[in-house]
Amino acid sequence: MKWEISHRETWLYEANPTLKLAVLVVLFLAVLLIHNPNVLINLSLALFLLFCFGTGYPANVLFWMFLPFFLIFFSSASSMMMFGEGTTTWFRWGLIHITAESFWRGLHLGFRALALGLLGLIFALTTRPVPLFYSLMQQLKLKPKYAYSFLAAVRLLPIMLEELQTIRHALKVRGVPRQGGLGKVKRYAIPLLSQSIRRAQRIAVAMEAKQFSGSGPRTFYYEIGFSKYDGWFVALFAAFLFAAYYVGIHYPYIPIRDVR
Amino acid sequence: MERKAKGLKLADILTTIVIAIVFGVIYKVWGPLYDMVKVFGFHADQLMYGMWFIASSLAYLLIRKPGVALLAETAASSGELIMGSQWGLEVLIYGFVQGLFAELVFAAFRYRRFDVFVVSLSAVGATAGSLIMDFYKGYIDALAPWNMALFLLARFIGAIVIAGAFAVSLAKALEKTGVTQMWRPASQDDYDALNR
């Protein structure tokens, strides 16, 4: 759905999708191993700047996309801040008990959620589904029947959204009373799912007839290889990690080195 | 000609992935909702967590083949990732682990039972999978004990209600629309009708 918003394609789009995914996995693990909040704050800041200036989307779109991240930052942080265990009490009110340890740990969790979310969003924004699955087939040897099924399913999404709109209008025209919660989910899910499943079955028959399920050697319409941008991509994230560690250790913002 | 290939056929895979992508969209919009509820505190948000297990339950109930639960949950979470989930890559790993645990429960019943009990049990399995990931990632073991108990209880109950009972009711309604005829062309009722 994001791919319909007009945007400029930066060099991040040119990097090999499989390589991007691999870098993402490495950074994901690296973020999990960071226990120094100073380092994590720096890394989050670097990723935020890349999100703002590297993805090529206009500022208002970026703002709306970033909004859920505020929420996740506060929600990840607040629960641990208010209810976590610790010894140095700062504030106590009923069940809420804020200690120095739980506060810093909560802040750390918030930044961790932010960093991981930004990593994923940068990947999602700068990777188009078609090259992604072609690259997974060529570089990671993902079975074509899985990859093409994915691509076919992604192509069905706009049709599903249209149908969702149709159902909404139909319910309105017929004066069906509003309903909340799971009942509402069901009212929309049954027609949407049944239509999608029928469509999927028809497409599957066509794809089987065209040997998309075959397991022999095959050629690809898009050949996805590696380029100089892949080198840049790896270098960029290595630089991020290094800078975050260097600044975090030599110029700390808060006097905590390990939140555990 | 050996036509009876082992494993999933393309039609099974495509249908599973289409179901998964539908739920991928739901998973994506569920994220901000979940965070909004989370602000209320007391783990009310955990009651909603079960929605993130429903793709595996529903795909298994409809297609009833080995491997479908794992594929559905992994595909739904990768759909969520591609749409820009606020949790990033994490959802893919969570999805895989949750799907794997749900799949193990179905495998333990040798893919022969499709009732509320087994599906709820798979939801419990998926919850266990998500908790393992949480323990590894989120420092939740540092929550105070009473709070921890509330957290676990809310998540298990939410999972059983949504990915267990609700998934079964969805599957029953979808059976009535006839979309499962490809996998189960004739039911016992049909044979009974012939014998009458």
Automatic annotation (TrEMBL), chain A:
Q: Which UniProt keywords apply?
A: Cell membrane, Membrane, Transmembrane, Transmembrane helix
The record lists the organism as: Geobacillus icigianus
Entry's localization field? Membrane
The family database entries (InterPro entries) matched by this protein are listed as: ABC/ECF_trnsptr_transmembrane, ECF_transporter_component
Q: How does it sit in the membrane?
A: Multi-pass membrane protein
- Membrane-crossing segments per the record: 17-34, 39-57, 63-83, 103-126, 232-254
UniProt cross-references to Pfam families, sorted A to Z = CbiQ
Protein name, entry field: HMP/thiamine permease protein YkoC
UniProtKB/TrEMBL annotation, chain B:
Q: Kindly give the InterPro entries that the UniProt entry links to this protein.
A: ABC_thiamin-permease_prd (IPR017195)
Q: Which positions, given as ranges, span the membrane?
A: 7-27, 47-63, 91-109, 116-136, 148-174
Q: Which UniProt keywords apply?
A: Membrane, Transmembrane, Transmembrane helix
User: According to the lineage, what is the superkingdom?
Assistant: Bacteria
Respond yes or no to whether keyword Membrane is given for this record: yes
Q: What is this protein called?
A: HMP/thiamine permease protein YkoE
